[in-house]
Amino acid sequence: MIAMLLVSLSARRVAVTGAGGQTGQHAFRKLLANKDFAPIGIVRSEQSRAALIESGVPSEAVVVADVTDAAQFAAAIVGCEALIIGTSAKPAPSGATDPTTGRPIFTYPKGTPEIVDWLGQKAQIDAAKACGPNTHVIICSSMGGTDPSNMLNALGREKLPDGTTKGGNILLWKRKAEKYLIDSGLPYTIVHPGGLLNEPGGKREIVIGVDDERTVGERSIPREDVAEVLVQALLIPAYRGRSFDIRSKLEGEGAVTTDFKALLDSLGGRNCDYSLGEIA
Description:
Elements: H1 2-10, E1 12-17, H2 23-32, E2 37-43, H3 46-54, E3 62-64, H4 70-76, E4 82-85, E5 92-97, E6 104-107, H5 113-131, E7 136-140, H6 151-154, E8 158-159, E9 165-166, H7 170-184, E10 188-193, E11 195-197, E12 206-209, E13 220-222, H8 223-235, E14 242-248, H9 260-265
Parallel strand pairs: 1-2, 1-4, 2-3, 4-7, 7-10, 10-14, 11-13
Antiparallel strand pairs: 5-6, 8-9, 12-14
């Protein structure tokens, strides 16, 4: 009993936002399975919380908080030593099509990139800073940020009668939040995954790089492998102060990645260059 108590007291309290989603939930469950961590999963609704509890997650490990409500979110993560940001605006077809191109028109029914990926992430970073100057913040972002013309930026963008546009630009807003974190003075890790796959992790060689380079490997990576990198960033001190991209080779190509320090070491001292592309 005493040994169990000592373990629980020494476990690191880590908040994970987007814990009811896909990649965030993988990271949350990995932390739940590791006795060195005492994770708190932050979800958006009581429905998401109930689903996690029904799946076996302890009720005390799940909290409902709106990341765009700065005061509510700050209260939810009091006492945390680290934060994994797994939230993101999610586009969905509106049901209409563009009369010029015939392509479906997308909207962001649960919050625009400006609200979720910028203001929501800013609120999370500010709340982490309130927890203490050594609070480690890890952002799960996206590749493509060096290219303002990336197709992801066009989703949800609306052309106004005067020729200007509004909305969309998800990668530009993400990049703004990333730069805000870097400038905050907090320990940080920023991970840019390629296209996310709903396939089992631990079966591929992960390819690491910077600035959207794609000379080796595929454009994509399983979500579970991304989650493993997010967790390893908490375990390996060298991941602090780093911003990088991750993709993978096809299953069966190369050697499955198991040494995550060596993975980062292979990058040398390179970090993503925020003078490239645009920031909203």
